[in-house]
Amino acid sequence: MTNVLSLRGVSKTFGAVAALTGIDLDVAAGQVVAVVGDNGAGKSTLVKILSGVHPRDAGTITFEGREVEIPTPAAAHRLGIATVFQDLALCENLDVIQNLFLGQEIRPLRLDDVAMETRSWELLRRLSAKIPSVRVPVAALSGGQRQTVAIARSLLGDPKVIILDEPTAALGVAQTAEVLNLVERLRENGLGVIMISHNMADVRAVADTVAVLRLGRNNGTFAVDEVSTEEIIAAITGATDNAVSRRTQRGRTP
Amino acid sequence: MTTLATDQQDERLRSRKEGLRGALADVVERARGGDLGVIPVVVGLIVIWTVLQILNPVFLSSANLVNLTLESAAVGVIALGVVCVLLVGQIDLSVGSVSGLSGAVLAVLFVGEGLPVWLAVAASVVMGAAVGWVYGQLFNRFGVPSFVITLAGLLAFLGLQLYVLGTKGSINLPFDSGLVNFAQLDFVPDWLSYTFAAVAAVWLFVSGLLHARARAAAGLSARSMSALVTRSVALLAVLAFVVWYLGRTRGVGWMFVLFVALVLIMHYLLSRTRWGRAVYAVGGNVEAARRAGINVKAIYTSVFVLCSTFAAVGGILAAARLAAANQSSGGGDVNLNAIAAAVIGGTSLFGGRGTAFGALLGIIVIQSISSGLTLLNLDSSIRFVVTGVVLLLAVIVDSVSRRSRTSHGRA
């Protein structure tokens, strides 16, 4: 499997704080990589570097075999890296269609709202989205509906890699299942998916690989099939000797 | 059972009435949710006109209304620029000074230096654009709040205006120049006015019909024929009445036509182009706009440039109307009238909400008050107080409807 996106030694500091130090990460086409870590582990900073919000201080980013710079969000769009942020970044005063096509409207000088509305419905139906009308302002939608709009928007530019920042954090049971189904579909379509998550059940349900960050450093990359939840948690907390790991150890020694 | 349009299939959507009644019901529904649009300003205008007409029967006379349209044009053009700045959630307090400076530059180049009038006009407009560009750079690079930048601009450009005018303090434009003719004497012939009205109505109908066809072909719900026809006939009736009534005396001035044309162009740019969407997006959620790949800095620069350019154009029109540029051009209440017109026209001070037509309606409200109170021989002190109260009312309507939108999920 060839890697569509590779990070080597990526670092970022904010003043005196080293938010990321020497991060390595690989994502292949058709692979779901879960990035997990405690609060302050640097997950959000990593997302922001990949989406062009913050520049990195050191290290290389290789995208489709070429070393690239991602100075701006627009550059990330052009490369084919789409990001769904935790705060979704939707404009509440604009309606669903306007939000979906924001920055990539069809026919810039004479907006083709019919084509955009048709595309919007296709997209939302494909995601089995439960949105009654695309003409209502986003302010009128529930949290799950907004998440769907945000994910649908990231798919418009035919990206190669999609970054989902805590996609299931604010969702109900059915909507979480829907989002996880959607992640499966993204993988089937050959997209690389980076999923930031706190929820181990979600990670185990859809991810192929788990990359653990701890205090801004890599703290292990595991194949989901070969690792237990306890081991992941141990890597997240940095505790090699706690109640959970001891019990695991006892279970393994015959 | 017939198949539903793609956008009407969700079972939770309440069934809409078909045709004209459905369209009307939609408007009522939106207004209840706090999406008032132009309703408050139209209601306000009717109230103001009624009161002023009762106080002085001359107010609604054709001659006075012709004057009102001509007086509206200059400050209206400035208000159009203010709308753009307010849409991104910023403000420009220096539009009055910039318009005064523009008038002064025009007069000095045209009368003092003897340049051709078109060159003097072009120089003034370019000067306005340059001012806006500087504002944009200051705002983007240093992150200084726009009201401080433009407050500094207000003083600085007032000083520059006085400097440009020099010791004379006032420069008269020759009455036989095309510019002064344009602002004072040029009226659209009646037949052409009616043609404009007819073209507008036909345009509204044809574009509406093509749009409805395209939507129907794409399987979306579309406006009914009856709604389209009613809309166009109503527009035709209103425009024809206005043209007829103004035509009883001098008619429709070319300067007012220019103002309306600028409003239409801005309406198109704001509602039908990618740039316009970006403006609303920046006003709604600047971080979301940035992440959507919109060049936020370029948008800010573009609206500051537009605003100052419109201020310069407004200053030229004001100088042409007065046939002079003097030290008080663009001073006094010009600044606040332009901002008040934008706000009264329904442009939200919170950003992301408002239309180009708001500038047109807002300035007519402001000029009506001004003209009505002048007719009553009332002092400008009272005019200021009344204008201030109306502005306050408009801002209250904005805030209250914003709260209502939030509770109805339309913010």
Strand-helix topology:
The complex is a heterodimer of chains A (about 250) and B (about 400).
Chain A: E1 3-14, E2 17-28, E3 32-37, H1 43-50, E4 58-63, E5 66-68, H2 73-79, E6 81-84, H3 96-100, H4 113-126, H5 143-155, E7 161-165, H6 173-188, E8 192-196, H7 200-206, E9 209-214, E10 217-223, H8 229-237, H9 243-252
Chain B: H1 19-32, H2 39-55, H3 62-87, H4 95-112, H5 117-142, H6 146-165, E1 170-172, H7 178-184, H8 190-217, H9 225-247, H10 254-272, H11 274-284, H12 286-291, H13 296-322, E2 324-326, H14 334-344, H15 356-375, H16 380-407
Helix pairs in contact in B: 1-9, 2-15, 3-10, 3-13, 3-14, 3-15, 4-5, 4-6, 4-13, 5-13, 7-13, 8-9, 10-11, 10-15, 11-13, 14-15, 14-16, 15-16
InterPro entries (chain A): AAA+_ATPase (IPR003593), ABC_carbohydrate_import_ATPase (IPR050107), ABC_transporter-like_ATP-bd (IPR003439), P-loop_NTPase (IPR027417)
Keywords (chain A): ATP-binding, Nucleotide-binding, Sugar transport, Transport
Pfam family, one (chain A): ABC_tran
What does this structure look like?
- The complex is a heterodimer of chains A (254) and B (411).
- The longest helix of chain A is centred in the last third of the chain and has 16 residues, at 173-188.
- Chain A has nine helices and ten strands.
- Chain A is of the alpha/beta class.
- A six-stranded mixed beta sheet of chain A has the order 6-7-8-3-9-10, with helices on both faces.
- Chain A has one domain: P-loop containing nucleotide triphosphate hydrolases (Rossmann fold, 3-Layer(aba) Sandwich), CATH 3.40.50.300.
- Chain B has 411 residues and is mainly alpha-helical.
- Chain B folds into two domains: 61-184 and 273-398, ABC transporter involved in vitamin B12 uptake, BtuC; 187-252.
- Helices cover 73% and strands 1% of the residues of chain B.
- Chain B is built from 16 helices and two strands.
- Chain B has helices at 19-32, 39-55, 62-87, 95-112, 117-142, 146-165, 178-184, 190-217, 225-247, 254-272, 274-284, 286-291, 296-322, 334-344, 356-375, 380-407, and strands at residues 170-172, 324-326.
- A two-stranded antiparallel sheet of chain B has the order 1-2.
- Chain B is globular.
- Chain B starts with 18 loop residues before the first helix and ends with a helix.
- The mean pLDDT of chain B is 89.
- Chains A and B meet through helix 2 and helix 4 of A and helix 8, helix 11 and helix 12 of B.
